[in-house]
Each structure stands twice: as structure tokens, then as C-alpha cells.
Specification:
Blueprint lengths: L1 H13 L6 H13 L4 E8 L6 E8 L2 E8 L2 H18 L1
Antiparallel strand pairs: 1-2, 2-3
Helix pairs in contact: 2-3
Length: 90
């Protein structure tokens, strides 16, 4: 575990650590609305080895955007980032 943590700390210090918008949005949504964001797959396209996932972000019953990517996690990052930025401005 220690080598992994050292690698993560070095990435943070260099400013190259990947930001997990899903986690940050979840924390903010739970704090502000007492709700957990949900990600719903709305489309899957491409061949088995070249899948493209499209997911919709819902907080409660309200849609906060749609994102696409080669993995479900990547598809969820786009709308999570946009929603997080929007909610921080409010």
C-alpha cells in the first residue's frame, strides 16, 4: 500500500493527480441536498472491445447532464464535473 500512496502523493505535489469529480459531487450533493447522485446508462454503442457508454447524472429526480466515454466511470466524469461547477457557483 505504501508505494501506491507515495505515488499518489507525488502526483498531488506535481499537480498531475486525476480529479475524481464523481466523489467531489457526491460529497457536495449529500452535504447540500442529503441526496446521492445516481448515474444511469442511457446508451451503449460500439463493438465489444470498443464500447462507448453514455450516462445521465441524476440528483434526486433532476437531470444534471449526460456524458460519454469508453468506460462507465469515464462517461460519468463529464456530467459530474459540469454539475459540480454549476453547484459551486450557486
Amino acid at each position: 500500500v505504501l508505494p501506491y500512496l507515495e505515488q499518489q502523493l507525488e502526483a498531488i505535489e506535481r499537480g498531475t493527480a486525476e480529479i475524481d469529480y464523481r466523489t467531489r459531487l457526491q460529497e457536495l450533493a449529500q452535504q447540500r441536498f442529503n441526496l446521492t447522485p445516481r448515474y444511469q446508462v442511457v446508451a451503449v454503442s460500439g463493438r465489444d472491445h470498443e464500447r462507448e457508454f453514455t450516462q445521465e447524472l441524476l440528483v434526486g429526480q433532476q437531470s444534471h447532464g449526460v456524458g460519454s466515454g469508453p468506460r462507465k466511470h469515464a462517461a460519468a466524469q463529464q456530467p459530474a464535473r459540469a454539475a459540480l461547477e454549476r453547484l459551486r457557483e450557486e
